[in-house]
Structure formats: C-alpha cells, structure tokens
Write a structure and sequence with these properties.
The protein has 146 residues and is an alpha/beta fold. The chain has one domain (2-142). It is built from 4 helices and 7 strands; from the N terminus they run αββααβββββα. The strands form 2 sheets. It has a 5-stranded mixed beta sheet. A two-stranded antiparallel ribbon has the order 1-2. It is globular.
Length: 146
C-alpha cells in the first residue's frame, strides 16, 4: 500500500507516469492489472540510480520513458501485455501501438490485438514507411504537443 501511495505522490508531482493495462477489444484501462511506471525526466534516472547505488538503466529504457512522457502530454496512453507486449498504446477515438526498439536493425512489430491494428516501431536510425518504422528523433520532433 505504501509503494502505491509514493507512486501516486510522484505522479501528482509530474515526476512519474503510470501506465495501466489497456483492454484491446474495448479500449479501456484495467486498473486491477499490473502497472508500468516511467520517470518523466531522463535526469531522474541518474539521480535515483546514484541514490539507490544501482546502475543507470540502458538507453533503450530511458528513450522509452521519454516517448511515454511526450505522448502522455497529449493523449490517453497505456500498455498491453500478454505473451508479448506493446510498450505504449494510445487510446481514445482509435487505438495505435508504439514499440520502442532503440537499436540498429530493429524488428518491426506485426502483432494486431483487438482494436490495436497499427503498431509503429520507433527505432534508433532506421526508417521504413511500409513497415511503420520511424527514428525516435524524427517522431519526437514531429509531435505537435500544443
């Protein structure tokens, strides 16, 4: 119970973003299932890892949190996981999935789950219009958050 209270406080302070599981057929959050938590600022990863005496997370985890915090500014977001996972699901009028694969030669995701038909793979440098692969830098630069 205490951990959830701390997470709630951190989210209210805009230091943490909590993603809830999305029911892919209905497009609604399921609050009783597992949650994913992302720090909203990359610098916080360095602070907390220093404070906890642990390693700084891999770049891919930090990039995934950056994408999450940017998308959360404008859209309702969550995640989906069964045997596989969709890192970020934007839901509302329609549903779009985002897989963050911050590496060279990232495989394109082909899962279609419920109403989540399009899955965009965000890569380090690779661009492929047919397989919906976009470099993270271009994606974040083209987001209109106003």
């Amino acid at each position: 119970k205490t951990v959830f209270q701390y997470m709630d406080i951190l989210e209210k302070l805009f230091l943490l973003k909590i993603l809830y599981f999305i029911e892919p057929n209905k497009g609604v959050e399921v609050f009783y299932k597992e949650r994913k938590a992302y720090l909203t600022d990359p610098f916080l990863y360095r602070i907390f890892s220093s404070w906890c005496l642990t390693k700084i997370p891999e770049k891919s985890i930090i990039v995934e949190s950056i994408v999450t915090s940017h998308l959360a500014r404008k859209f309702n977001i969550g995640y989906w996981r069964n045997r596989r996972e969709i890192d970020i699901v934007v839901f509302g009028r329609g549903m779009v999935g985002f897989e963050v694969k911050y590496r060279e030669k990232a495989p394109a995701e082909k899962i279609g789950v419920g109403k989540i038909r399009n899955i965009i793979t965000l890569t380090k440098n690779e661009f492929n219009e047919n397989k919906l692969k976009i470099p993270v830098s271009i994606f974040l630069g083209s987001l209109n958050l106003s």
